[in-house]
Amino acid sequence: MGRMAGGGWSSLSVDLLELISGRAASGADRLHIHQVCTHWRASTPPPRRPPWVVAGRPGSGLYPIRDYSLRLPVGGAPRADVGALPAGLPYCCGTSQGWLALVDHYRYPTRLVLWEHLSNTQIPLPCLGYITLIVLSGDPLASSSEWVAIAGQQWSRSREYSVFYGFNVLPRLCGCDPHHQQRGVHLVTCNGELLVVVLYRGSHPSPAEVYKPVWAPIQRLELHERVMNLGDHSLFVGRGDAFALSAKEFPAIKRNCIYYADKLRHKGYWISVFHLDSDVVEEIPYPEELKEDTTNWMPHAWFCPRTP
């Protein structure tokens, strides 16, 4: 104690500062710790930006990024601002790796651009017709330049084609009698492992299940070990990119959960949170200010801003 008093708070060791920052209850507390002095800023990471919900109009394949589109997944769902969009690109068809994939028309696009809003970096891509989703394999601004963009396209009025189409390669998932309909099937990487998230409709005993998949010799994806504990991680799934976040790095989220942006939602709730350890479904209420909006905003996907 004497040495700390002599050197002042600015002399605390890096290990102790990391411990203090790691136990902070909120992003605001971490920010305050990070801003104390030059030594504390160099010794503690800045708070991570929380994931945002990307909302859009019902019935449209792509969603316009406008005033109400990006919101936080918490009570009241406050709006988040990404700044001015690149001119002439109002529609979003992807939210992968902290980038927004933007096009000029929701049905007949002629321009496709990847946009990172923090640095205002734009990467033009060849534009395909009837784009429904763009997913990136990596961050184009990361130290490694090896990344690809994968496009999903609509090839009929009712179906989409993409690299992974869950119901074509997965066996029948529900073992109940009668069988329960799937609400969604999603691939997501968590802590270096590929996982399959299965969401059910109706009164299934487990509204959400997570499995480790294995490719069978007959080119069929078999679900082997069921995962009941994600540790400190939670999974974020929706119509767009799926990803995992650590509750240690993002104190605002709950651990061992699946956050689902449900475009088939009712106005009673906004986001569904499935607790894997208890099979309890928690519903985040639909924002009050949007209930009066005639647009009838629907949650479509998640967007997690990249860390500069």
What can you tell me about this protein's structure?
The protein is 12% helix and 35% strand. The protein contains six helices and 20 strands. The strands form five sheets. It has a five-stranded antiparallel sheet, with no helix packed on it. Mean pLDDT is 77; it is low at 1-5 and 156-169.
Major beta-sheet overview? 5 strands, antiparallel
Output the number of helix runs. Answer: 6
Q: How much helix, percentage-wise, in residues?
A: 10-25%
User: What letter string, H or E per element, gives the SSE order?
Assistant: HHHHEEEEEEEEEEHEEEEEEEEEHE
Radius of gyration: 21 Å
Mean pLDDT: 77
Termini Cα gap: 37 Å
Strand percentage: 25-35%
Globular, elongated, flat, extended or rod-shaped: what is the shape?
Answer: globular
Catalogue the unreliable spans. 1-5, 156-169
Structural class: mainly beta
Number of strands: 20
Strand line-up across the major sheet: 2-4-5-6-7
Domain KIB1-4 beta-propeller: 88-153, 172-268
Protein name: KIB1-4 beta-propeller domain-containing protein
InterPro entries: KIB1-4_b-propeller
Organism: Urochloa decumbens
Task: Looking at this protein, list some descriptive labels.
single chain, mainly beta, 308 residues, 35% strand, globular, 12% helix, five-stranded antiparallel sheet, 20 strands, five-stranded mixed sheet
